[in-house]
Automatic annotation (TrEMBL):
Phylogenetic lineage: Bacteria, Bacillati, Bacillota, Bacilli, Bacillales
Superkingdom of origin: Bacteria
One Gene Ontology cellular component: plasma membrane
Domain ABC transmembrane type-1: 81-294
Membrane topology field: Multi-pass membrane protein
Name the UniProt record assigns to this protein: Spermidine/putrescine ABC transporter permease
GO biological process: one example: transmembrane transport
Record bears the keyword Membrane: yes
Amino acid sequence: MAGRTRTGTGKRSIRQALRKNRTGWLFVTPWLLGLLLFYVYPLVSSIILSFTSYSILKAGSFVGLQNYRNLMGDGVFWASIYNTLYFALLYVPLSLICSLALALLLNTGRRGIGFYRTLFFLPTLVPLVAKAAIWIWLLNPQFGLVNQALAAIGINGPPWLGSDSWSKPTLVLMSLWAIGQTVMIFVAGLQDISRDYYDAAAVDGARRHQTLWRITLPLLTPVLFYNLIMGIIGSFQVFALPYSLTGGSGAPAGSLMFYVMYVYQNAFLYLKMGYASAMAWILFALIALLTAVIFASSKKWVHYQGN
């Protein structure tokens, strides 16, 4: 009897809570519907499709792990992984180093510093297609401004986008042009560090390079951690810039065929949605693994103020 009473009381409390929060649920419902429709449904659908031969033109059938087996023997698949890893290993460290260096220069209270912060942030607002067109013009081997400037000092400019050995470093250079958002995040992190640490260091006679290594960088590690995670995720998903530069071909010699470009080709050019879904889940697993490793290691090198 007592158990029934408790059950009835529990049900009434749940109904009362739902009735009390009815307005809140009403406002949250559009977001929940959007989450289910645009995130959860595609996520579940893609993992199901990865085990089928589904194409946009036909329903397909269940093939088990065949798509994943076929990927293991796909030369373009492995080439796209190599190109993506090459880009990530070069771009992520350089972007963090350059962003931090610029942030240290911009973290001053001097007059007019806001103009320079805006100047470094503006390239992030340029559409990627327009950015590709600008760089194609600048790096043209015949009449590009970069090679003309190099020729003026007696240096023969390389075929930036026309050589498979130069194409990926050139793409890294183009991508570094738009690190303004990372710079601003570092600036915000620098301004969040309490002045008390620097005042105490000044009293102890610490020099500028000592405060940089002993105070600034350790207390900036949470921001560095965030930018590292976002940089890795972004570099593994690089798509728009190389696609605009090559028209989706990945030329020259497939050196700019990146992983997401190959996923896009299989899904919307070859119409092999099941195959593309398998590729997408492999990418998801790779990014999740790297993120988990970085999160696990962060306990050893990420320091928070007050700890």
